[in-house]
Design brief:
This protein is of the alpha+beta class. Helices cover 19% and strands 33% of the residues. The protein has one domain: Protein Transport Mog1p, Chain A (3-Layer(aba) Sandwich), CATH 3.40.1000. The chain is elongated.
Length: 188
């Protein structure tokens, strides 16, 4: 009797496990949760050295561009917008170069599409220090020899800030001075 009960319980457990596996299979008629953003055709690179021309770079970029707010005390140096091969098309990268009042460099990168993490610089490793909030999203803080990078992704773009380790104590102040700009908004 005990043997029959044991076999019966084993069969019930097997049936429950099979039912769970069948129910957990994704249905083929369901759309994927996240659809990839369309890739771009290559377009000419844009280089600017005057902060007044930043509006042109922002207007030519497919998603909002990360930049400093006016009056943040950070000096504009230059900016570029170019494309990079990504998957079976092209991604777009806007790189803005800024300097603190003490001459420390700050590099801001806005990347389209948002899942193009492979276009971030290599050689960085995770740190036990949490990154600040950027645009309402948690960020990741990574470091290499002398540089700190914080990055986050929104629904539309990937955003990274590179700064020297000497600015480590100022990361949260720097992040609060950043904003995403589109052509409708002031740029600088």
């Amino acid at each position: 009797m005990l043997r029959i009960l044991s076999v019966l319980l084993s069969l019930i457990a097997l049936a429950v496990a099979c039912f769970s596996l069948i129910m957990a299979q994704p249905r083929s008629d369901q759309a994927p949760a996240v659809s990839p953003q369309p890739l771009l055709a290559p377009s000419p690179a844009l280089n600017i050295t005057d902060e007044k021309d930043l509006r042109n770079l922002i207007a030519a970029f497919p998603v909002p561009v990360m930049s400093f707010l006016s009056g943040s005390g950070i000096r504009f140096v230059s900016a570029t917008s170019s494309y990079a091969a990504w998957r079976s098309g092209f991604a777009r990268i806007a790189t803005l170069y800024w300097q603190t009042a003490d001459g420390e460099p700050l590099i801001l990168r806005s990347i389209y599409p948002a899942d193009a993490f492979g276009l971030l610089e290599k050689g960085f490793h995770f740190t036990p220090v949490a990154g600040p909030t950027l645009f309402g999203n948690a960020s990741v803080r990574m470091e290499d020899g002398g540089t700190i990078r914080i990055h986050t992704a929104t629904d539309t773009g990937l955003y990274a800030v590179n700064c020297p380790k000497s600015l480590s104590d100022h990361i949260s102040v720097i992040s609060r001075s950043l904003q995403l700009f589109t052509v409708d908004e002031p740029a600088g």
